[in-house]
Structures are given as structure tokens and as C-alpha cells.
Specification:
The protein contains 14 helices and eleven strands. By secondary structure, it is α/β, with parallel strands linked by helices. It has a single domain, classed as TIM Barrel (Alpha-Beta Barrel), CATH 3.20.20.30.
Length: about 325
């Protein structure tokens, strides 16, 4: 969900609930995902609320746990806690923290969060010793019981090692916008299977989700241009390189990054090829988009459909959001 105002996000979530959608998901870049979902929780009844994704390293595990517990209470047990490592550059330059070894750090972070959510209301202290987190909550006791002492945690990943970690330690996986159908088949599915085997996980109790840019419109040229802008934005992040390399888009991404650092948005978008649009987005009429989404369902349980939103005005974003609701309502 994205909107010009949080009230717009609330309205969109209410429409999604009325349309029969299973869940709505809030991003974390220009707003915090938890605050958006708190507003949504107060105005909805049954739809699940997911963070896609909350940045795991920029908060302490204790604060993340307490925020999740609060939001789960406000929503009456509807939260899905989606966590991601964030990119190295933004963690270090925007947040002023050491990125470290993201897979190791994420494993520890999830372990600590699970301990706190499950036991902070009980009598005993919580202790954890790791490479990144050394925690002892002696003397701390959360004075009230949680709605749930186990909140589902989904881990976002692009690279094979983080994806494998999701299979090992999380309850679900969230694929990024740039995780194409081929990338999900060739990399994600295999990595998750390996991780679940290592973690002794039952695949039937694990949810595989992926965010998919979806532009439903009769005006395909305009919709493709909108999708092109979102792909251009994500082409600038080195963390997301593996899918671009898999498809042989290295030359295009070099040009897009050059344009990005020159603050030339028009050139960024122009350098997204038609093949890149077809690879990383679903664009077309309602019938065409429904058909494309079905192709993903052989490999994922939950497609998280996201309207194009970068470098677009909010009126156009809203148009594509409404089209998703109309096309995929039940």
C-alpha cells in the first residue's frame, strides 16, 4: 500500500478487505510500516496486516518485539511481521549503523525477537549471546499477556543465502519486487527447500510470498511506462543485483545507475528495456494480469500485488491500486 496520506492508505485497506483480499502490506521507506498498519488496524476487522518490510537492524530486537506485540493487540491477532535487512548503503549512510554480516545478524535477530515475544510476559529473564546481540532482560517483566505469544515472522530476501535463512528460521519468505518468476523458480524455490530441510521445517507450515509489480490497464503503453519507473528505481540498488544478472541485464543497470547518480530520472526510466518490464512486472488487461499471476501460484503461496509507485504522481498510483482491487476481488 502507498498513498499520499495515511488516511488514503486506510481507505485502500478497507476497500481491500471489502473486496475479499487476504492481507494488506505496508512498506517502510518514506513512512514506518508499523504506524501505517496501526491506523489500518483501527478501521478494519479481519484482513491480515503485514510489514513488507520492517527494517530489522535499525531497531533493537526488544523494540521490534514490543511494537509487534502492540500492533498485534490493536489488530486483534492479525499481524504478520515481515522483516528485512535493508541495503548496506542505506543502513550505514542513512541510519549510521554497521551492516555487518546480514545473514548471521538476521538469524540472531529473529531468534531474539521470538524469545521476547514468547516469554517477556513470563517470570524468568531472557538471555541471549550471539555475534551481534548479547541480551539479558533480568529484572524486566511485561506486565500483561499478549494476544498471541507467537507472531508469524516472514523474512525478506533476494540472495540465495538470505533466502535459505528464511527457510531455516522464519515462518515465511517475502520475495522482492525484482524476484522474477524465473528467479523464483531457479533460485528462491531451491534455496527455500534447502533451508527448510536444514531447519527441519514442514513446507506445509511455511508461506512463500513475493511482491509483484502489477499494472492493470487497457492502456498498456502507459501502464508499461509506469512499471518501467518502478523497475528503474530498484535497478540502482546493488543488493538486488542477482535477478538482474540472471537475466543478463547488467548493461542496462549500469546505465540506469549512472543516470541515477546524475539525478536524471528520465534517463533512468528510458534505460529500462521492454524485456525488463516483461521480466519484473505484470502489465496488461485484467484478463492478462490474472493469467500471469496464476503462473506464479505454482511456486508461491501468496502474491503480494503492488501498483507501480516510484516517480509517479499519487493520482496515477491510486488508479493502478483501484485496478488491482477490481481485477482480483473475490
Amino acid at each position: 500500500m502507498d498513498g499520499n496520506r495515511i488516511s488514503d492508505i486506510v481507505s485502500l485497506a478497507k476497500e481491500a478487505e471489502d473486496a475479499g483480499f487476504e492481507s494488506v502490506w505496508a512498506t517502510e521507506l518514506y513512512r514506518t510500516s508499523f504506524q501505517q498498519l496501526a491506523a489500518v488496524a483501527a478501521e478494519t476487522q479481519s484482513i491480515k496486516l503485514g510489514t513488507a518490510v520492517a527494517l530489522a537492524f535499525v531497531r533493537s530486537p526488544l523494540i521490534t518485539s514490543l511494537t509487534a506485540l502492540d500492533l498485534d493487540e490493536v489488530s486483534r491477532g492479525r499481524l504478520i511481521l515481515g522483516l528485512g535487512s535493508g541495503a548496506k548503503r542505506t543502513n550505514e549512510l542513512w541510519h549510521g549503523l554497521t551492516h555487518g554480516k546480514p545473514v548471521t545478524r538476521m538469524r540472531e535477530c529473529i531468534e531474539v525477537i521470538r524469545h521476547i515475544i514468547g516469554a517477556s510476559h513470563l517470570a524468568g529473564p531472557i538471555s541471549y549471546e550471539g555475534e551481534y546481540y548479547n541480551i539479558s532482560t533480568r529484572g524486566y517483566h511485561r506486565a500483561f499477556k499478549p494476544v498471541r505469544d507467537s507472531i508469524p515472522i516472514y523474512l525478506a530476501g533476494v540472495g540465495a543465502t538470505m533466502t535459505q535463512a528464511a527457510g531455516e528460521v522464519a515462518d515465511g519468505y517475502i520475495g522482492h519486487v525484482v524476484c522474477s518468476l524465473r528467479y523464483i523458480k531457479d533460485v528462491v524455490s531451491k534455496s527455500l527447500k534447502k533451508g527448510m530441510k536444514s531447519g527441519n521445517k514442514d513446507p506445509n507450515n511455511f508461506t512463500t510470498a513475493s511482491i509483484i509489480t502489477c499494472a492493470v490497464s487497457q492502456d498498456k503503453k502507459r501502464a508499461r511506462q509506469a512499471a518501467r519507473a518502478t523497475i528503474a528505481f530498484y535497478s540502482t540498488v546493488r543488493t538486488y543485483e542477482p535477478p538482474f544478472k540472471l537475466h543478463g541485464f547488467e548493461k542496462e543497470t549500469v546505465k540506469i545507475r549512472e543516470a541515477f547518480f546524475n539525478r536524471d530520472v528520465e534517463a533512468m526510466i528510458e534505460n529500462v528495456s521492454d524485456d525488463m518490464v516483461d521480466t519484473f512486472a505484470i502489465v496488461g488487461t485484467p484478463e492478462e494480469c490474472r493469467k500471469r499471476v496464476k503462473e506464479y501460484l505454482d511456486y508461491i503461496d501468496l502474491p503480494i500485488l503492488s501498483a507501480p509507485h516510484y516517480y509517479l504522481d499519487f493520482e496515477e498510483v491510486s488508479e493502478y491500486q483501484k485496478a488491482i482491487l477490481d481485477t482480483f476481488s473475490t
